[in-house]
Design brief:
With about 260 residues, the chain is mainly beta. The protein has one domain (about 1-10, about 45-255): Lipocalin, CATH 2.40.128. The protein has two helices and 13 strands. The chain has helices spanning about 1-10, 10-15, and strands spanning about 40-60, 65, 70-90, 90-110, 115, 125-140, 145-160, 165-180, 185-205, 210-220, 220-230, 235-245, 250-255. Strand 9 (about 185-205) and strand 10 form a beta hairpin. The longest helix is centred in the first third of the chain and has 9 residues, at about 1-10. The chain is elongated.
């Protein structure tokens, strides 16, 4: 997947200089003015959410955890990426992305009954940064006055940390919006499913280094979203979306088309 994404980002925009055939099936759009086929975007994304624990294990002889579902787990993400996209059809845009991510996850162990341990645990911090690779597509339908769209994105993260970590995510973003001159405004939501697994060492007071393994998943898959964008000309545009509910996010996008 990484090779495909790198090709999209670094080669496809260059090829667009000599290719004016896209999107295919232009007649489906009638007299509607279509965007330029190729684009490159900068995305800046931040998110706060709660996690559920699917499993938690400590390698402590004679020590067992109580119910791990009592644990509170918070997750904060700062992410930015470079994205290349192309309109294959008037209703279908495909894209690849590569970026950087910083994540701070806190597992609160203070409310868990620890059987066999004479003192309570505190918190288990799991922080990492890495490179994100992703592929996705957007389906669009609309007129000169309104539009509806659904964007689906799949990502994997190549993590650099002292932990053995894997992070995969799938997001789906439905939107319904209005077009007023150069402005676009919309409302919708975001479905997010994250599978995050960590194996490493946790330092316990008076005991020392203890191996652990934790599997995390998104607690609330859906949140609401609203946003606005401005089209400066046929080559550049910018947008800002805010998510709210039990998960909060902010997404800024700046797009250049060729």
């Amino acid at each position: 997947m990484r090779a495909i994404i790198l090709i999209l980002i670094f080669l496809l925009p260059i090829s667009s200089i000599a290719d004016s055939t896209l999107p295919f099936l232009k007649d489906l759009a009638g007299d509607t003015e279509l965007p330029r086929a190729w684009g490159v975007s900068l995305d800046i994304y931040a998110m706060e959410q709660d996690y559920d624990i699917k499993s938690l294990q400590f390698a402590l002889p004679g020590i067992s955890l109580g119910d791990p579902t009592q644990l509170n787990v918070t997750n904060e993400v700062q992410h930015y990426d470079l994205q290349a996209d192309v309109w294959i059809f008037p209703f279908l845009n495909v894209f690849g992305l590569i970026g950087k991510v910083n994540t701070d996850t806190i597992v609160d162990l203070r409310k868990v009954d620890i059987i066999g341990l004479p003192f309570p645990l505190t918190t288990l911090p799991v922080s990492f940064d890495g490179t994100v690779y992703g592929l996705g597509f957007t389906l669009v339908y609309g007129t000169e006055n309104w539009f509806t769209s659904v964007t689906t994105t799949f990502t994997q993260t190549d993590v650099r940390s002292g932990l053995d970590t894997s992070v995969d995510s799938t997001s789906i973003q439905p939107r319904l919006g209005l077009v007023r001159n150069n402005w676009r405004v919309w409302a919708g939501g975001m479905y997010l499913e994250v599978d995050e697994n960590h194996t490493g060492i946790f330092e316990l007071p008076f005991i020392g280094d203890v191996p652990f393994a934790v599997e995390l998943a998104t607690r609330d898959n859906w949140n609401y979203a609203a946003g606005a964008g401005y089209v400066f000309n046929d080559r550049t545009s910018a947008s800002l979306e805010l998510g709210f509910g039990k998960r909060q996010h902010a997404l800024f996008n700046f797009n250049i088309r060729f």
